[in-house]
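Appendix B, record 7
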Amino acid sequence: MASSFSQIAVLLGLACVGMTRPADAAEPISFNNDVVPVLTRFGCNAGGCHGKLAGQNGFRLSLRGYAPELDHATITREALGRRINAASPADSLLVRKAANLIPHGGGQRLERDGKAAQILIDWIAAGAPGPKTDEATLERIEVSPASSTLSTGESHPLAVTAIYSDGQRKDVTWLTQFASSDSGVLDVAPSGLVTALRNGESVVRASFKDQVEIATVTTPYADSVAARQDVVRNNIIDEHVFTKLAALRIEPSLLCDDATFIRRASLDAIGTLPTATEVRDFLADTDSNKRLHLVNQLLARSEFVDFWALQLGDILQNRKERDHDVRGAKGVRAMHQWLRSQVAARASWRDIATSVLMAKGACDQEPAVGFYIVTVGEKDADQSEVADSVAQAFLGTRIGCARCHNHPLEKYTQDDYYHFVSFFSRVTLDRKKPEDGGTELVVGTRQLLNLQRELQNKRVELQALQQQNGEAPKIDEATKRVADLERQIDETRKSPVEVSQPRTGQRLAPQPLDRSLNAIPPGDDPRQTLTNWLTDPSNEQFSGAMINRLWKHFLSVGLVEPVDDLRATNPPSNRPLWNTLNHEFVSSGYDLRHVMKLIMNSRTYQLAADSQESNFRDTQFYSHYYARRLSAEVLLDAICQATGVPEQFAGYPLGVRAIQVPDPGVDSYFLALFGRSERTTACACERKADVTLPQLLHLQNSDELYRKMKSPEGELAKICAAQTDDNAVLDWLFLSTIGRLPRDEQRASVLELLKTGDRQEVLLDVFWALLNSKEFTFNR
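Structure tokens (predicted):
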């Protein structure tokens, strides 16, 4: 029956295989290099059309053409080849649908008489040949101009050139998809014409086939900037930041005052409010280097260890498993204590990363194994999220898209993904309930683990037979089985390290994301090769991932945003500064404190949050400090410190601060409401920093907050009982919450209320107002 259908299809002109192109044709049409780019450029294989997982109306293409061999089969053979018409190529369903000559859900995608339609027609006329292994392949694309400066309202076209493996260069501008990183600053037309809409800087992403490149467009402000502010530069950070601002004609804000600085620095470095006494002492200090001394003091405090163990716990997903947990709270605490010890000992980020990546053994003896327990879980490592988590935590890049298809915004292909996954193909978890001992990470395959278990049991059996003078045949049989198992184990250990690519079935060996070749000797742990490559000083992504996190932590906005989405098409907002910070970090031996000091001592970090007319629109070049809401743990601790009433966390002694709690699963409505990270992934987006209406309502109406403020053992009750001077009480209220003294008009208003109102009620109202103020809930 199938044969009859095929014959009918040929007679009706629906088949394509075996058809030949006219002899007088010019350059042959390539499915890979000509047809797929057309389908991609006009959105046929996009995620919203036939490229989605289920396809569209029975027609499915691979997303953005990542699987051309499958696309060719779908177009030419599926549905009895009805999508092409070899007898009359122009009447092919593929062409007529795309041109909307017959009803098409996606509307008109290309012109019937246009260049794109002609490529499809010529390809069908040539016999619709499939992908060829010996044809030239695309190596890279170039965008011209790579950088440019435009005035507001000005336009210019971009040109894209494709470079192939045979040296051919082809203008593919018309087949390229363009996108602006900030459509409010820069508009880009489908043709590649860019138009500056307002002042700033934006990147245009140009995508052709599996290659992506960028062009940077700068639109400076019209008015030149006075040089008075950018002359004062504390260190190399300021050199790069103020040079960038000058190029954009953005004036930096003034320096923040001392009260603002001690509060900002304390919250950023140790997650803790400065006390009223600390603020007073700092304000009274006349040493011109007091800010530098403060930074050194903060980085040496015990709260620094607590706070940064919390930050690293977020990155490394230190939590209990969602289902069938084998670590328990004890395992989470053990890893937290290990992280504390690393921070306290000034361990380098490189050493911490190496310890985690190379972790093995039982989790109750090696806490870092916990990283693999939560990222591998109950799956085989090559089917788990471990590769995604490692890439995001240590390289700051998101490769998860490439699990199913080529990455739409980056160079990574599906093959790249499974090459990377292959590094973890020897990670096997011998999972045990906590009461049965610690879950163990074994370096080897599941097959190896099973063979080792059988060998252990068989050796015990053999020993028992020998001790009991058992029957000779049984002893011989057991001896042979032990030898056979030892041979199988040795062969398994030496077997090639590789995983299967699910789409092609090809077995892929470990290979870093930069596609450098690293042979792994038989029996070696593949993670060692990965760790050597990943932590090599030449690997900018490893150092850059942490640099970007630190910069965002202290400056509110990363040099790359999102902070853990580093890719060629998402460049830093200040490339020279990025290069300098990476150099400083690597040269210091990956010392986290070194970079923190550099940032906190810069004038850039110490600028006021108050914007000026010339810089209020700036949100990415650091012309002023970008105020942000305090994180969940820091805000809760600030409330507890200001009120003098600690929070009680289930399972922890009273007095344990929120930044000291290891387990993100500890019940706390407040922490959940204010965006505590659940650590289910390595994504920084797990921690929420936005301001929501429920948060505001909770602060304004919380019975718990009111209880803390009014507590007889609280700070307000104590200061009111010990101090009869209302001015002194008022000073304490302001200094212990928002870190400054009240302004004259604020002082006068409160003192006036105190003349006629109940003293405790008035001061309680002032306390409530301060704790609900933006000055308290934000770092500014």
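Remarks on this record: The first strand starts at residue 138 and ends at 144. The chain is about 45% helix and 10% strand.
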